[in-house]
Design a protein that fits this description.
Elements lengths: L1 E8 L4 H14 L3 E8 L7 E9 L14 E4 L19 E5 L10 H6 L5 E4 L1 H8 L6 H12 L4 H11 L2 H28 L1
Parallel strand pairs: 1-4, 4-5, 5-6
Antiparallel strand pairs: 1-3, 2-3
Helix pairs in contact: 1-4, 1-5, 3-4, 3-6, 4-6, 5-6
Length: about 190
């Protein structure tokens, strides 16, 4: 079973991100579940959502305490919440920023992990460009699909089409495609440099 934990703030689409990723896995014939955890339901409050993917029935219902991967939608949480708590050794990390792990003061983390599993993506910038709103969830999910290889871009697009319609769907599909392609290009650079 693969477990993903997504950290962000209210209004950034954290819950929708987990739903879209689980639908993407379901489209590919796998079992999936997605659920949120939040205290107050106000804009800007820290929010966490979880997603599990497996090839068999998922019976667990508790929060993901030892994730295989983390997506951090808002890097201001890096200094407010222990977002890396429980992350499995050599887990995936995708941060919504254009800055490097070193620039964020995460050199130790970057030095102890496989570089092909750590990535940053300016997802808010991509969302503004294609959707016109600073909601980074869909670009991050598509970027994570590219980073992890767990689901295909086509499955993410199908999930977006099930969740949204019209211009909102079109913008999110464009954002997802750009994010996916950016991460794939970066992965190629990392492999070439190694």
């Amino acid at each position: 079973m693969f477990e993903l934990r997504i950290h962000g703030r209210g209004g950034q689409g954290v819950v929708t991100a987990a739903e879209i990723f689980s639908i993407s896995a379901f489209v590919e014939g796998r079992n999936a579940q997605a659920f949120p955890s939040f205290g107050s339901e106000r804009m800007g409050a820290p929010v966490v959502s979880f997603c599990r993917i497996a090839d068999r029935e998922i019976r667990l219902r508790e929060p993901v305490m030892e994730p295989d991967a983390l997506i951090i939608q808002d890097i201001t949480l890096l200094h407010q919440v222990d977002v890396f708590d429980g992350l499995k050794k050599d887990g995936y990390i995708l941060l919504n920023t254009g800055r490097s792990f070193e620039e964020l003061g995460l050199s130790e983390l970057a030095g102890s992990s496989s570089p092909e599993r750590l990535c940053t993506l300016s997802a808010t910038e991509i969302a503004l460009k294609h959707i016109g709103r600073p909601i980074p969830n869909v670009p991050l999910i598509a970027g994570f699909a590219a980073l992890s290889g767990l689901v295909r871009l086509e499955s993410v697009i199908k999930a977006i089409s099930e969740k949204f319609s019209g211009k909102v769907a079109d913008g999110n599909i464009a954002a997802a495609t750009e994010a996916y392609n950016r991460i794939k290009a970066r992965a190629l650079e990392v492999t070439t440099d190694a």
